[in-house]
Write a structure and sequence with these properties.
The protein is of the alpha/beta class and 239 residues long. It has one domain: Acetylglutamate kinase-like (Carbamate kinase, 3-Layer(aba) Sandwich). The protein is 37% helix and 19% strand.
């Protein structure tokens, strides 16, 4: 198999790291997810990873807490996940660095764009924690921002569903899956790909998004090699 993309930004949800558990980290599941990441790295693909924190904390669900403080707690949750992913990759023999948007030098590098790119050029996987480092911005927006900053060819969003549908496939058995969409379709129809800030950022920087299921982690390799899985969102002429 030959990779289609030279440099990718992989967005992993916190929920995917919990596996069959409803909370926390299932390390066996993390290893399962990291094996195809190693396979992609071995093919020469340069990889950046943004991790969510929903398996530990969902601040938006608590209306009584100050939003800024709740978001800061979520950033710390992403750091736990980033360290877990890094440990799994290292156990598999992959060189990895964790960079966080909030400085915590004892456990991770501070995020520095040029250093992150240099790590990837040397074959190291870089895991980005703490989102953007700012409240009111999701980790999807962090993925779009980091993708733009490191000049990624594509954002690969590994989710709990196998693509983008016109309605919720969990509640509507007649929901229709899209193979491809434009960014304007996503924004105008309010489709659940990424939040509007993240989608707009990718659209403005002409970075496509591929949404696919992480239920089978080998889909990461298929996505990197350009196989027809999931839903691709891209800029088209009418955009």
């Amino acid at each position: 198999m030959q990779p289609k993309y030279k440099r990718i930004l992989l967005k992993l949800s916190g929920e995917s790291l919990a596996g069959s558990k409803s909370h926390g980290i299932d390390f066996d599941k993390v290893l399962e997810i990291c094996r195809p990441i190693k396979q992609c790295a071995d093919m020469g693909v340069q990889i950046g990873i943004v991790v969510g924190g929903g398996n530990f904390w969902r601040g938006r669900s608590s209306g009584k807490m100050d939003r800024t403080r709740a978001d800061h707690m979520g950033m710390l949750a992403t750091t736990i996940n980033a360290l877990g992913v890094a440990d799994a990759l290292e156990q598999l023999g992959v060189q990895v660095r964790v960079q966080t948007a909030i400085e915590m030098r004892q456990i991770a590098e501070p995020y520095i764009r040029n250093r992150a790119v240099r790590h990837m050029e040397k074959g190291r996987v870089v895991v980005f924690g703490c989102g953007t480092g700012n409240p009111f911005f999701s980790t999807d927006t962090a993925a779009a921002l980091r993708a733009a900053e490191i000049d990624a060819d594509i954002v690969l969003k590994a989710t709990m569903v196998d693509g983008v549908y016109d309605s919720d496939p969990k509640t509507n058995p007649n929901a229709v899956k899209f193979d491809s969409l434009s960014f304007l379709d996503v924004l105008n129809r309010g489709l659940q790909v990424m939040d509007s800030t993240a989608a707009s950022l990718c659209m403005d920087n002409h970075i496509p998004i591929l949404v696919f299921s992480i239920d089978r982690p080998e889909n990461i390799v298929k996505a990197v090699c350009g196989e027809p899985i999931g839903t691709i969102v891209k800029v088209v002429k009418e955009d």
